[in-house]
């Protein structure tokens, strides 16, 4: 039975979890526009450093942005342009011409009018972000300093309970002392980046197929709570750790997965590699079970390509080689899905079908939380 369970762990390739309550949370990501040029003073564009930061922002939040809100100024629109292009979104412009309070209220009303579960990116200015956070019920935040561009706020608006604000950083660091004009207010948690910076995990190559960015949420390090239900057996719990990064100059994503039993023994070790074949418009995804020495093709042509919606990712695969074959008939197919995707968590679920997809039984589920880099 122990070896059979190790085979089941083969499907643990990524993770993150959200309960039903979390799925109803609204998430608001707020950043100041990137570094701007000194001229023309009325409406300056981004500098080269600013354009690089805009790209870093796209890398950081690509996995889950449903709405982008900007002001009419060029510096906010250019900062949001890469992520809007990747996600296929048209930014919503909200003018501050009516005054700071009115602008903040209009942005907040727009966010709250949308359905629960969405992630909204707001690209604003040093003085508009604190006002918007306050209008959404968050804590008091001082204006950002003049040379402060790396700051990123994540405001979670739960279905029940008070808002939670996290301050993080992304992209190139600000110069020393850039945030010296302010301190973290009460109610705000200081953290390291909620999404990985380009240094430890690489970054998407601008020339790579843009479809690859749909799996960018997997990049980083995750702590996994794994639940496995063998056929006819009781649920079992495991602990996992998964690390994803860009490789091959940013043209592919590789994920390494480790899983331990309750005694601390390593029972699963493997690696995914993901790339996109732009010529054939198909995903190429392979899983290597390092302990068994076997490869598995995910989303093979006979089972269809990866299916992506605004809220989930799904694909299928055949019965893996090795011990798992002792638990299921040879014709079993498996459905893998990623749901409730956000900056901090998502749900990975594997279901098995023994009747060509007529009925499905969940055999494994992973809830994961993003760990510190």
Can you walk me through this structure?
- The protein is α+β, with helices and mostly antiparallel strands and 373 residues long.
- The chain is built from 7 helices and 18 strands.
- It is elongated.
- The chain has 2 domains: 2-19 and 201-370, Beta Barrel (Lipocalin), CATH 2.40.128.20; 21-193, Phosphoglycerate mutase-like (Rossmann fold, 3-Layer(aba) Sandwich).
- Mean pLDDT is 83; it is low at 1-22 and 183-199.
- Helices cover 17% and strands 34% of the residues.
- The protein starts with a helix and ends with a strand.
- The strands form 2 sheets. It has an 11-stranded antiparallel beta sheet with strand order 13-12-11-10-9-8-18-17-16-15-14. The protein has a 7-stranded mixed beta sheet with strand order 3-2-4-1-5-6-7.
Topology:
Blueprint: H1 2-8, H2 20-23, E1 26-32, H3 48-61, E2 67-70, H4 74-87, E3 92-93, H5 100-113, E4 119-124, H6 128-135, E5 151-157, E6 164-169, E7 188-190, H7 198-201, E8 220-228, E9 236-247, E10 252-260, E11 266-277, E12 282-289, E13 294-298, E14 307-308, E15 312-318, E16 333-339, E17 345-353, E18 361-370
Parallel strand pairs: 1-4, 2-3, 2-4, 6-7
Antiparallel strand pairs: 1-5, 5-6, 8-9, 8-18, 9-10, 10-11, 11-12, 12-13, 14-15, 15-16, 16-17, 17-18
């Amino acid at each position: 039975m122990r070896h059979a369970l190790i085979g089941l762990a083969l499907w643990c390739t990524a993770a993150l979890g959200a309960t039903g309550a979390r799925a109803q949370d609204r998430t608001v990501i707020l950043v100041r526009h990137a570094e701007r040029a000194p001229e023309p003073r009325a409406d300056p564009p981004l500098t080269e450093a600013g354009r690089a930061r805009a790209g870093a922002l796209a890398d950081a939040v690509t996995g889950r942005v449903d709405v982008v809100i900007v002001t009419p100024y060029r510096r906010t629109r250019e900062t949001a342009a890469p992520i809007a292009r990747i996600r296929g979104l048209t930014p919503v412009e909200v003018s501050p011409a009516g005054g700071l309070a009115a602008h903040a209220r209009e942005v907040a009303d727009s966010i709250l009018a949308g359905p629960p579960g969405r992630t909204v990116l707001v690209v604003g200015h040093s003085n508009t972000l604190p006002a918007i956070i306050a209008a959404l019920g968050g804590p008091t935040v001082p204006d950002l300093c003049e040379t402060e561009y790396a700051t990123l706020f994540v405001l979670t608006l739960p279905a029940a309970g008070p808002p939670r604000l996290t301050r993080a950083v992304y992209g190139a660091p600000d110069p020393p002392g850039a945030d010296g004009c302010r301190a973290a207010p009460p109610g705000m948690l200081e953290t390291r980046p909620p999404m990985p910076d380009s240094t430890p995990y690489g970054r998407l190559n601008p020339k790579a197929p843009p479809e690859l960015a749909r799996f960018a949420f997997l990049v980083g390090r995750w702590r996994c709570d794994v639940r496995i239900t063998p056929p006819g057996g009781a649920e079992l719990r495991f602990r996992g750790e998964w690390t994803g990064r860009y490789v091959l100059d940013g043209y592919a994503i590789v994920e390494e997965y480790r899983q331990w039993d309750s005694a601390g023994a390593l029972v699963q070790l493997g690696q995914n590699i993901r790339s996109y074949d732009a010529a054939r418009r198909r995903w190429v995804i392979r899983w290597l079970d390092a302990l068994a020495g076997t490869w598995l093709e995910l989303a093979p042509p006979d089972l269809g390509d990866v299916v992506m919606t605004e809220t989930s990712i799904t694909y299928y695969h055949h019965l893996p080689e090795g011990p798992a074959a002792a638990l299921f008939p040879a014709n079993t197919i498996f459905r893998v899905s990623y749901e409730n995707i956000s900056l901090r968590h998502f749900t990975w679920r594997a279901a098995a079908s023994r009747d060509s997809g007529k009925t499905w039984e969940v055999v494994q589920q992973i809830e994961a939380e993003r760990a510190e880099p």
